[in-house]
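In the current project phase, work has continued on tokenised descriptions of protein folds. One protein thus recorded appears below exactly as we store it.

——
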Amino acid sequence: MEISNSSLKILTKTLEILTKILQAYFDFIFRTLNLRLVVSTKSGKFGFTIDPLKERTIDERIANIEIAKENLLEALSAMDDMQKTAENQKKELERINSLLEKIQKQKRSAKKELIEIKKITGVDVETFRKIAKIPSKKDIWGERMVGFISGIVASAIVGVIFIVVPALIK
């Protein structure tokens, strides 16, 4: 299955947005609960622990909430951008589908016209042949056969005349 560049861009943008949202969410939760997330990879295994942070002042907590708020606002802004992009692509797709339908209708109409033109052309040719007394292929071959048989008969008559007439003269 191939993924187009635009789909790949949308997917990348979506993952970035989801990452920011999750990061803001976890930052907010951990800072609010005064916890710290520690990620470790020992001997190829992934693990994490949640440790309590040292006691912070109310000003530090408010600052952390402000940072989380900024992260959430940035994530919301990115989501709005992604929604606008999706809406633009949806409009473009609708325009293309509409154009495709129009072209398909024109194609069907053109096919019908072509069939009608072929019928009319066929009738006109036959009518012209009859009026101008132009023989058809069948008529031409019939005349050739009559001419061929007439030639054979004429040759036979001439042969008989050349044999009978000299015998009568003697």
